[in-house]
Amino acid sequence: MILVNLLPHREAARKRKRELFFTTLALAALVGGVISGGIYSWYQAQISGQMDKNLVLQTEIKQLENQIKDIAGLQQEIAALRARQTAVEDLQGNRNLPVHLLDELVRQLPDGVYITSMKQENQVVMLTGVAQSNERVSELLRNLGNNSPWLTRPELIEITASSVALTARDQRRVSNFSMRVALVRGSDKPQQAASGALPVVAVPASGAV
User: Fold this and answer.
1) Per-residue pLDDT tens digits for 30-69
2) Domain containing 167 — which CATH number?
3) pLDDT digits (tens, 9 = 90+) for 152-166
């Protein structure tokens, strides 16, 4: 006896293919969803970790800023204290400067040199006087520049020749001069000693400058 299959086998084959396709598609979608979820979770974990690090850094930055403000305040206080200390030292040192000035002028004036006027402006003293010769003025400049611990940087401003009548018949030539010299404060003396003596302006042997 011969059996004949009357079922539409082609339609059944197409149905099986469709079912296999949809099953494969569903599995692919499921695997893709799992992978996407894993990647998303990993990125979220990285972002959360970085945010935590940023929060820690911001906290430390604020602490450092507060410390910097404290240090700046301390530096200002130290600068103010140093300024006060310097002012007090200057006052103490300047109090005795007139005494040192007069004492040094008496010590350093050569014979034949006479001071006629003296004027002080801050640390600079203007001297005007009469000398028997230009050589005496040169000697005074050398003494003030090299031998005095309280006077420094002597500078000749002007020197002119003139004559002085001692009697009706006795007239002598003299040199009128003006110069400036700087006073050394007590706080500046170590610096002067370290730098050494400064050069002194020479005076010509005769004639006007």
Assistant:
1) 998 899 888 988 999 899 889 999 999 999 999 998 888 8
2) 3.30.1360
3) 899 999 999 888 777
Within a domain: residue 200?
Answer: no
Assigned token pair, 6: 């009357």
* Full-model pTM: 0.48
In a domain, 188, yes or no: no
Whether residue 42 lies inside any domain: the answer is yes
Say whether both 131 and 179 belong to one domain: yes
Per the listing, tokens 């200390």 go with 85
* Domain count of the fold of the chain: 2
Range of the domain at 170: 109-183
Q: How is the beta sheet containing 113-121 ordered, strand by strand?
A: 113-121, 124-131, 171-183, 151-165
DSSP string, the chain: ------S-HHHHHHHHHHHHHHHHHHHHHHHHHHHHHHHHHHHHHHHHHHHHHHHHHHHHHHHHHHHHHHHHHHHHHHHHHHHHHHHHHHHHHHHTHHHHHHHHHHHHPPTTEEEEEEEEETTEEEEEEEESSHHHHHHHHHHHHHT-SSEEEEEEEEEEEEEEESSSS-EEEEEEEEEEEEEPPGGGHHHHHHH-PPP-----SSS--
Question: Are both 25 and 58 inside the same structural domain?
Answer: yes
- Residue 123 sits at φ, ψ, to 5 deg, of -100, 10
Residues in the chain predicted with pLDDT less than 70, given as ranges, are 1-9, 93-94, 168, 186-209
